[in-house]
């Protein structure tokens, strides 16, 4: 499996400086807000999206202040959506830590998400980063549309593969695509290159989301399957494939379980077993690898150097990861 450390070393200087710049970007004079911001900064994850910003920028030239602002904007928007998602999903944990809504309740969590969003917008506007703001605002629009489309479709459990890809393209891939596009813009000011890198990020983002969907089925020995998506009536690629390739009566049984028995572990396990036996896992894995290779194909249009290799490794890391 790919390790993330060698990739981080390529942009160690940027990541280290970014840590401080991000802390500065979220400071507030309101003590409650400042306390929550400190909590958010302290429990940040692997920072995959800022890494994509810096590597995309460095593929074409040295990072500058506008690159740092683009990375901060991406991270502010990403964090805002996570805080709001936890409220929507009534989730009380994220990455082993309590969520903002678990500690400070929903009202505060919604306002914190709004604050992060406004901080990001102001960061760009105050520095005339209009193109970067345009790129990222498009992603926010797409993310909201993707989330609402998923809610709409999960009610009827009527989801085609085409609609599934529309949902994940908007919900997940759009932010990664925008991170790559914005990073590229800061060192090139070239719309064509920014668009090529947006496409690279989109394909990588689609593969990233399918990997997440596969975790729900406990693939690649990551332990017991969670079945959380089934419990939440989320139709993901392995299950969509299974429902499309299962006979009428059995399909109806599966749909009944997802609609009415989705909280019963025994029945959820039946759905998981069906997905495995009908080849849903294998099918989704093949599509994920195809998208990963297409992303790398876009990348290979640019000259090879250690940064391009780092970006390729980062894409491989997102599809090879075990968690």
Write the SSE topology.
Layout: H1 5-10, H2 12-25, H3 31-42, H4 48-58, H5 65-88, E1 93-94, E2 97-98, H6 100-126, H7 130-156, H8 161-188, H9 191-215, H10 228-231, H11 237-244, H12 248-260, H13 265-277, H14 280-299, H15 306-320
Antiparallel strand pairs: 1-2
Helix pairs in contact: 2-5, 4-5, 4-8, 4-15, 5-6, 5-7, 5-8, 7-8, 8-9, 9-14, 9-15, 11-13, 11-14, 14-15
Main features:
76% helix; Farnesyl Diphosphate Synthase; two-stranded antiparallel ribbon; mainly alpha; 323 residues
Rg over C-alpha atoms, rounded to the nearest angstrom: 20 Å
The beta-strand count equals 2
Secondary-structure-based class equals mainly alpha
Q: Which regions have little confidence, pLDDT < 50, spanning 5+ residues?
A: 219-224
Helix-strand pattern: HHHHHEEHHHHHHHHHH
Overall number of domains: 1
Q: What can you tell me about this protein's structure?
A:
The chain is an all-alpha fold and 323 residues long. The chain has a single domain, classed as Farnesyl Diphosphate Synthase. 76% of the residues lie in helices and 1% in strands. It contains 15 helices and 2 strands. It has helices at 5-10, 12-25, 31-42, 48-58, 65-88, 100-126, 130-156, 161-188, 191-215, 228-231, 237-244, 248-260, 265-277, 280-299, 306-320, and strands at 93-94, 97-98. It has a two-stranded antiparallel ribbon. A hairpin with a 2-residue loop joins strand 1 (93-94) and strand 2 (97-98). Helix 9 runs antiparallel to helix 14 (280-299). It is globular, with a radius of gyration of 20 Å. The model is unreliable at 219-224 (pLDDT under 50).
